[in-house]
Amino acid sequence: MIDRYPPVEPYETGVLEVGDGNVLYWETVGNPDGTPAVYLHGGPGGGSGPGPRRHFDPTAYRAVLLDQRGCGRSRPLADTPQTDLATNTTAHLVADIEALREHLGIDRWVVFGVSWGVTLALVYAQAHPERVIAMVLGAVTSGNRRESEWITRDMGRVFPQEWEAFAAQVPAAERGGDLAAGYARLLADPDPRVRDEAARAWCVWEDTHVSLMPGWTPSPRYTDPTFRSVFARLVTHYWSHGCFLADGQVLAAMPRLAGIPAILIHGRYDVSGPADVAWELHRVWPGSELILLDDAGHGGGSFGPQLTAALDCFVQLDRPSPAN
Length: 324
Description:
Mean pLDDT: 95
CATH class of the largest domain: Alpha Beta
Largest sheet: 8 strands, mixed
Radius of gyration: 19 Å
Helix content: 25-40%
CATH superfamily of the largest domain: Alpha/Beta hydrolase fold, catalytic domain
CATH topology of the largest domain: Rossmann fold
Number of helices: 11
Low-confidence stretches: 320-324
Distance between the termini: 34 Å
Strand order of the largest sheet: 1-2-4-3-5-6-7-8
Strand content: 15-25%
Structural class: alpha/beta
Number of strands: 8
């Protein structure tokens, strides 16, 4: 099993206007005549980058990567309150993915998501099952309130000292409520120092609750003030609104995916995303395979190689004929 394929540069890049003043960055890598696929990044707000490109066999896949609204190379960035997030919701992101598919002239594709990208991939596939060949989902999430409450509150039982510092950023009167909403208000403060302090504290906690995975090191992304502002603002925006989903929506709609093959990959050390979420989805998804990794958390260990191997499994499905 290989870890990842060698580094590859896009053979095409572009931007797509999707309305509401939003312009999405996208890129394609690999073989223009290969099996189409799309990668949905985590966060929300994590953006894409060179790393995920390497999970796709460049001789066999036509892989599309995009930066979701408000982050990465898409514009406008959600790094300050001046960027209105009213039209940055799960439904808008699903519509953006479908608009990009149509823009690129792709009929069906393999959908690959990681972390938040799993929730987005599932909601997209449930809305457009006829457009999905197969799915590869790593670090499985489903967007339930229970999942965000686990990370923002219940994880304090695992990291009590760190959680106290995290919760202490929120005014005392709000600490018993929705901490993501409390942070969202801080990140909308007119004082940039208040916003930056909140973004730093949020990202320290993000690093903490994934730190049990083997080989963990702090993420260098959070040293970038723009990245941490974008990331913290988008995560808190989505979590404080229940990911713009009815609670339990994804699980309830799983029968729509019954005919779609899928591989779910999850690390047992992923204490920030307990494996029961992946297990519950797998149980109600005929044709899905669940791989629980004993050496990985929210990444690390054999997580990367397993993602690559899973994508390799689906490369021949619905392969288009080479262009004449």
